[in-house]
Amino acid sequence: MSDIAGRTCPLRYRYGAEAIARLPTVEAETLYVIGGLYGNLPALDAIEAMAAAEPGPVTLVFNGDFNWFNVDEVGFAEINRRVLAHHAIVGNVEAELGVDGDAAGCGCAYPDHVDGAVVERSNRIHARLKATAAGHPDILAALAGLPMIARFAVGGLHVAVVHGDADSLAGWRFDAAALDDLQNQPWIVDAFRRADVHIFASTHTCLPALRRFASGLVANNGAAGMPNFNEKPYGLLTRISTRPPSGEALYGEVHHGVHVHAMPIRYDHADWVARFLANWPEGSDAWLSYFKRIAHGPDYFLA
User: What predicted TM-score, i.e. pTM, was given to this entire model?
Assistant: First the structure.
């Protein structure tokens, strides 16, 4: 692994799938796994409305990177206040906010195929967010107390909620391409055994995927706070439930009677664009890296 800031994966990020097996289990009837909110308050409004519309109780868990573009004082405070009222684990963004120095940069552990300019801009975005966070010691203390992994039970199935992959906070082995890599599949199958789970729910890599393996399902929601498909202006969350979805689901699987679906988060797109541009005007680091995706989605298709 490179030791360049933004590409490095610190040793403190590595927990190993066996640590998941040792966690206490939280029971849930319907679990919303919300990764990559990225400071999008309109998306959080939409998620809360989706949960309220469910016919039964809903447990929300935010699996990291709920902060990113929210570098304004009000946005930073509100995102964290509302997210921390629910279950949450840290993503690399939160993990680096309270760290002295910037050796890991944004902590993204970007692979080699990601352009160096993107990595450098991410490090500067994180530095700006870190400066905002420094003015909120109470939030930093709460974030420092969050775990890197969580374990739930839904309908008798065990669910590992991670940010990156089964072994590391910033791991990329649940990336859409990695899930289809035949050389990676023995590791994936063994990760279910080591973690003692039936489902892995992840995020981190920014593009969604749902894959079935002999030992279970891997559901990566991509991003809750940004579009995930070309010209589709909504985020995604992973819904895991004893009940089929009553609202709109884009795709999904039923695994031993448990329903696992990708649900669109239809936030107020115009409101989000305006909020983003207020913090990150044209030519800024986040605008250069993300505005095309925020406006039009990535070159990735639902099919």
Answer: 0.94
